Structure formats: structure tokens, C-alpha cells
Amino acid sequence: MAADAASVPGAETLGPPAPDGPRADTRTGYVRYVAGKLGGAAVSLLAVLVTGFFLFRLIPGDPVKTMTGGRPISAGQLAAYRREFGLDLPLWQQFTDYCGKALTGDLGTSYQFRAPVIDKITEALPNTLLLTGTAFVLYTALGIFLGTRSAWRHGGVSDRVNTGLALTLYSVPSFWLGLLLIIVFSVGVGPIPGLFPTGGMESGGKEGLAYVLDVAHHLVLPVVTLVAVEYGQTLLVTRSALLDEMGSAYLTTARAKGLRDDLVRRRHAVPNALLPTVTLVFVNLGRTVAGVILVETVFSWPGLGGLFYQALSVPDLPLVQGLFLFFASAVIVMNTLADLVYPLLDPRVGR
User: Fold this and answer.
1) CA 165, 166, 172: angle at the middle one, nearest 5?
2) Which residue from 310, 302, 305, 306 is spatially nearest to 202, judged by alpha carbons?
3) What is the DSSP string of 287-304?
């Protein structure tokens, strides 16, 4: 037998396959996939850094003169202010200084607040997270629930109503809807009294449970605005993914085994259809943080969006640049996380 094996051409090169060969190839493919996504994210952050520096210097106006409030000021005082904030340096040197500091976490000092930009962002961030986090949970849950119901009963009256309403609200500008809600439910129209505050985060002078209820009262209209505008995308993506799954053979098999229709939907169809929705959830999380500027401005909410609008009106270049970098980074990080999580949910991706 040994002689027969030796007489077979190429037999000496044959051997048992490596037990972990395919698994090792999969791991290697995933590592390459992750490295590519992280590299793409790094390039995107660098592009944001460059764009943010040059873009906001196209805004007309002199930041130093704006900070003086239009008061008469001598040329020497103007020159001193420019030296203090580094505005007298050549543009290329301002850019290199900005990039070097930004890479170490130093986003500069705000012109109008005379405080580190990172401190102003940290101060306003919890207020934005309260608003966007509440809205995110509500519109994600609402979109998934209505999307699955619409897909399972596609073509019916409820499906047409849900889809039509979602498309309509998704196309409405958030600031316009916010202003409309203020007019109707804050100011009051006809028999509808003013039920909610026109803006702000609190009335002041309250503590404990009264303070929590007061903040919740101020939170209602901005959250409703964000939920109304954002839930439609989740609904449409969930509905489309579930419709694709409903024609699959495994669902027919599950029904043939006698499983109830509701059980087939919840245990089999919906979990597989949620893969695109999971990706959308990560993307929406970053986009909601970055897209809350208009809503916070309309409702005078003391978060990052209101701070960005206030800085843009000066223009407070370090603060504007720092907030722009933060907003863009939130979107890039969430997109990257979605790309990294998706292969764990669907092993076919990233091979």
C-alpha cells in the first residue's frame, strides 16, 4: 500500500487539509475588511479636518470686530486681539497649528466665551444626548413596529396610510414642523390652548421631581418634531426588507408545520429582515446627533445645535470648527461601527 501510494504522481504533496484552514481564511478576510473600514474612516476624518478649517473662513465678517460688539476700537487693539487668537499668522501656519492641536484633542479657545472649545462641547453634550437619545429610541421603535405591521399586511388600508404618512413627514423640513408645533401647541390656535413652552429646557427655580417633570414638559415638542421627521426612514427600510423575506421558502415551511402566522412573523421573518435596519440604526444615531442643529435652534434648546448656531453668527471660528468636527466624527464613527457589526450579523459580508 505504501508503494502504491508512493507511485501516485504528486502523492508526496498530498496530506490532510488543515483543520482550521477555512476558519483562518474567514478570520483573515474579516481582519482585512476591518482594516479597510478603519482606514476609510481615518481618511474621512482627515478630509473633515481640512474642510472644516477652510470652509468657515469663507464666512464674511471679522471675528475680532464682531466680538467688540461694534464699539469703536483702535487699530492697535485690533492687532492685539488678532495676535492673541493667532489670526495674524499666515493661513498655512494657522492650518498646521490647528491640525497639530486637533490631533492631540486641543480644539482651541472660543473667541466669545474665552474658554476651551472642548469644555463648551462637554458642557452642552448632555443636553443634546437627552434630546436626541429620547427621540432616537422612540422613532426607531415606532419605525420598526409600523414597518413590520405594514409589510405583513402590505396592500391594505393600514399599509397605505402608514407608508403615505411616513413619506410625507420624512419630506417635511424639521425646522418648519417645529415652528408649526410651536404655533399650534405653545402659542395656541383657536380652541387649542398653549400647552407646552415655546422653548428652552427648563423654567427655573425647581428641584427634584418637579425639575424632572419640568424638563420633560419642555422636551415634548422637540422630541415629537424629531420623531415625526425621522421614523419614516426606519419604517420604509424595515417594510422593504420584510417584504423581501416573506417570499422565502423557510417561511412556507414554518407555516406548513402549523405555526401561527404571528409566530412565523416574530420568530422567523422579522429577525432576518432586521439586518438592514440594524445598519440604519447606527447610521441614524450619528446623523441625529449631527442633524439636531435646526431643531435645537427653533426650540432654543441649550445643546450642541444651539451652540453651533450661536458660534456661527460671530463667527467663532475655533468653536465652529470644533463642533463641525464633532458632528462629522459622530456620523463617521457610527457608519464605521455599522460596517463592523454587519459581518457579525451576516457572515457573508467581509469575506
Assistant:
1) 90
2) 302
3) HHHHT-HHHHHHTT--SH
Cα distance between residue 15 and residue 287, in whole Å: 53
pTM for the structure as a whole:
0.77
8 A C-beta contact, residue 301 and residue 127: yes
- Among residues 215, 268, 279, the alpha carbon closest in space to that of 246 is found at 268
pLDDT per residue rounded down to tens, the chain (351 residues) = 444 444 444 444 444 444 455 555 567 777 887 888 888 888 988 888 888 888 877 776 666 666 666 666 777 777 777 777 777 778 888 888 888 888 888 888 888 888 888 999 999 999 999 999 999 999 999 998 898 888 878 778 888 998 999 999 988 888 899 999 999 888 877 777 778 888 888 887 788 888 889 899 999 999 999 999 989 888 988 888 888 777 666 666 766 766 666 666 666 666 677 777 777 787 777 777 776 888 888 898 898 888 888 888 777 888 888 898 888 888 888 888 888 877 776 666 655
CA distances from 234 to 54, 228, 242 (A): 35, 11, 12
d(CA 165, CA 205): 40
* C-alpha span between 45 and 80 (Å, rounded): 33
